Amino acid sequence: MPIHSIPLLCRFLPFLLLLSACGTAPIGEGMYQVKAGDTLYSIARNAGRSVGELQRLNQLNDNTIHVGQILNIGMGKPATPALDPVKTKPPATTPAPVSKPKTPAISLVWPNKGPVLRAFNGKSNKGINIGGAAGSPVYAAASGKVIYANQVRGYGKLLIIKHNKDYLTAYAHNRQILAKEGDNVKQGQSVAEMGNTGSDKVMLHFELRFKGVAINPAPYLP
């Protein structure tokens, strides 16, 4: 190992001691271990926080994170890790399924009037893709607060609006974002312009999430 790498290793040694046998599971209350495919946006979204909050909590200069990295998601104090993560494994538990509302608890408007290019399937597409012309307006599907307005790999220029404690909507591949983090926006307000950032074609990728889980927006749209 190069000598110049030793201080860096020592710096991250306390975090390496927190790794569990599962490797990708949450370390404890208020802490999260980055797994393959995670982005700072997805971790913030599932924790109900903004990317800016996670950057401040973890003293990050940008959105760069690494697999295995331990992040403070600000929901409490981390649990004391086992001293021997290989031999000591947590008891197997089955996570409780996220309950979906039986009746719509939120009413949306279409974020753009273009044609639906691809519908929600919950696997390869966790939202709906809407076609249109570059620069056409993207509207807030419901009133709420902007919790993210920045660029994310795979989503391009991404805008996220939190509507209440359960629901948020995401608007991806924008050419330009017109709202900023912390803004309160009204339903039907123009918040972005359609584009093709992070995509091979001009479109709006629109997601509806209930308690962090992507659900089909169709039943909530007129």
UniProtKB/TrEMBL annotation:
InterPro entries (alphabetical): Cell_wall_metabolism_enzyme (IPR050570), Dup_hybrid_motif (IPR011055), LysM (IPR018392), LysM_dom_sf (IPR036779), M23ase_b-sheet_dom (IPR016047)
Cellular component, GO, one term: cell outer membrane
UniProt keyword terms in alphabetical order: Signal
GO molecular function ontology, one term from the record: metalloendopeptidase activity
Classification via PROSITE patterns: LYSM
Domain of life from the UniProt record: Bacteria
Domain LysM residues, every copy: 30-73
Secretion signal span: 1-25
Entry annotated with the keyword Ribosomal protein: no
Family: Belongs to the E.coli NlpD/Haemophilus LppB family.
PANTHER family with a match to the protein in the record: MUREIN HYDROLASE ACTIVATOR NLPD, PEPTIDASE-RELATED
Protein name, UniProt field: LysM peptidoglycan-binding domain-containing protein
Native source organism of the sequence: Iodobacter ciconiae
